[in-house]
Amino acid sequence: MRIVALLLFLCSIDAGAQAPAQRLERGNGPEPATLDAHRCQEVACGNILRDLYEGLVTEDGAGRLIPGTAERWDVSADGRTWTFHLRAGLRWSNGEALDAPQIVASFRRAFAPDTAAPFAEQFYAVVNARAVQAGDVPPERLGIDAPDAHTVRIRTTRRVAMPALLTLPIAFPVYLPAVARDGAQHTRPGHLVSNGAYMLTAWTPQANLVVAKNRWFHDAAAVRIPEVRFHVTEDAAAELQRFAAGDLDITETVPPQPLPALRARFGDRLRISPYLGAFWLGLNLTKPPLRDAPALREALSLAVDRDRLTRSITGLGETPAYGIVPPGIPGAGHSRLRAGRAAVGGADASAARCAREGAVPRRRIFGKQSAGAGAALQHVDAASPARACGRGDVARHPRRARAPAQRGMEGIRAEPAPAHDHAGIPRRLDR
Hints:
The chain is built from 10 helices and 14 strands. The protein is of the alpha+beta class.
């Protein structure tokens, strides 16, 4: 169900059931643009990277922040110094020790001008982050350091929800010796060294990518599925056919079609869950006739019948978008505009004013629809319970879970609210 871009799957595993499948076959959408964690900016690579890497903080299946490579953290009274205490015995997938200085060096590489990390701006609250990326100061002056081998300290210029930001791929530790040795090829099988539950074993471009259990992962005993194959599935209709034929255990999405028909055909194999994201129509504000015509831009926004689009055309549970930031983000205002007035590019007056004044050229002009739900298919096989997993970075074990990486990968990132499917089941179980 191609509703808005990234669709979420659910996972349900019976901990006391039979042995798990040896390989999970998962549809993953387009070919990943890169497996360089610092340069990833789309969902296709994010899905895979969250299996290959683990940052200081991760998420459970309800979207709650839980310890990752850091076993605990604390923040100063003024909210500007975060201290993360690493787990003992961390290792890379090649067996080498992973310590705090290596994590700090990875952050410095992420903000270096040559890396051009697309999500670096999310961390501009970190001391000198903007200046380091601009090349004005050396990476060593980044406000992230290691007081000792087991501690990472992050200093900021203002209060920020740092643990939530650390779930982004840009915050994953990258093995720098491989980068120095292999350059851009450090992301290829045989070269990529990671620290997550899985390690890269094969990559056939425009076909599939295979990851296998990383025995050096700190929670390796809880990784239930030995191998995952991510299939390139750019055509949603073809992906649906492959699922129906038993070629895939999980789809990335499903093609647009009436929801009742999909439910009738697939029953409980069709899973729909909340997704924080927004889709809009974008117009170029730098050229006539829109450049100097705020009234025309507002009229175009008012002409979009968001309710009808989401109710009668997409029909998979999306909610109308009256702003860029979707509901569920703490601190975001989402007042529905009344009396026939719709904000251009935002739900509040300031966003509307910016758009009318042309302050956001080549940006969002008016919201088309909001992805209020994600949909996907998963096989439910009683004889092979581990293959009954949907979405996420693959099911690893039933005790702990992390929320999908999708959230925020294509738009504004903020600390997410807990998210469950309609039955209150976590979206994914993956570690």
